[in-house]
# Entry
Amino acid sequence: MSANLDFVDTTLRDGNQSLWGAVGLRTGMMLEIAADLDRVGYRAIDFSTSTHMAVTVRFHKENPWERIRLMKARMPHTPLSFLSTGMRFISWETAHPELMQLSYKLLVRNGIERFMVMDPMNNMQAVTDSANAIASAGGREIVGAIVYTVSPIHDDLHFAAAARQLAAVPSVTRVYLKDPGGLLTPERARTLLPVLRTALGDKPLELHSHCTIGLAPFTYAEAPELGVQTLHTAARPLGNGSSQPAIENVVANLRSQGVSVDLDMDAIARISSYFQTLAGAEGLATGVPQEYDARYFQHQLPGGMIGTMRRQLREMRQEHRLPEIYDEVERVRRELGYPIMVTPFSQVVGTQAVMNVLAPERYANVPDEVIRYVLGKFGTPPAPMDQNVRDRIEQLPRARELASQDAMPELSELRRRFDAKLSDEEFLLRATMPAEQVDAMVAAGPSRETYNPVVSPVEKLISELSQRPDVTHARFEREGFLVDLRSHSAPPAPGQTA
# Structure
């Protein structure tokens, strides 16, 4: 049994991403519950990624750097954690090391203390390079990721070799097994986790899994006895589904086994109540326990991607071909060298599989991201690619165009493209995002720092009614408050003055 079992809360980042597409939570919503999150006693809060920062700008017109600063001020006792997915910032193109170094320095300066570092190819040298760069930027805790998947080449020895590599890196202070598909069964955990524990020596082991096919709660119940010292969980409304296990359920199961858990459960109850009310106010679906699906082990497509794929096929009147696409996903993944089905590779494989099924001939159409993958723009696949498929794609005219594209420019060159008076924070956003999106964020001004889920639906309704010239009077009564609004041209009610 691991001593000092602790928890990382994923509600604001991975829960929000898994269940609400990363767009469900605005800055004010997070700030309202920050004090309670700080009281729980979590080891850290899984807070952001560069993708989440882009979503903050694109969909909410909010400054992601400001969000980090405001949250850190409200949460002085609990570290905020940032997930770094290789040498990239916002764009999936590989960034120049100087740009990455600047991004890490700004993250630390604005309040990020803990970094989780993964490479979608499980390239441990890439993880090491990122970890060293983060350490030189001042990152306090760096957690190297080993990404779990199921394939003929991903056996316990494969993962143990990755663990030994990370154990030898001084800048990596902890390691976590990241199971994006929720594929880790209790049976596999009983062999894999002890092997990782031995390979890591005295470095702590964390477990991050998803409930996509209902396995994670069972695996979490056994994980502490198998050497895991930290579990990643979410508040119940943003747990389950394709998210992490709900903290309330995990704690109850562990305590029933005699495991000591030192968390403020009253604060957790307030957090879950808040997000339950918020979900109702915003029309967002909360997570529910998932059914076991054995077919998932073959295609391994993320739950959200399956939903999008099914909708798109329905619009084309091709939904009946989904079973064919599942089979084709397996075939394409094998031909591309068994990439781990995590962003962006799940999209690379899934998109190509759909095109192969719908086109008269396989690989008749190949999107740029698949070509970039074959050209090695995302790294080296875990296994050799099918040579016939590789040759066919590399001979495409578009492949020659993409191969000749210049790498990410140096930082000094990028800076010359923008106003020298820009802050480093705004410069980084403009260097990696469309100008009109950053312009809209700047024009919107500071983020709103308050949110009331009871009042929010009324505020939305008032905003919508204000756009209708035919509505001159509106009265709202709800749970202890009353709002009576009239346009300037509307006559006062009897007994009232204008």
User: Anything to note?
Assistant: The chain has a mean pLDDT of 92. The beta strands are 6-9, 44-49, 80-85, 112-118, 141-147, 174-179, 205-209, 230-233, 473-478, 481-486. Residues 317 and 412 are 50 Å apart (CA to CA). Residues 265-282 form the longest helix (18 residues).
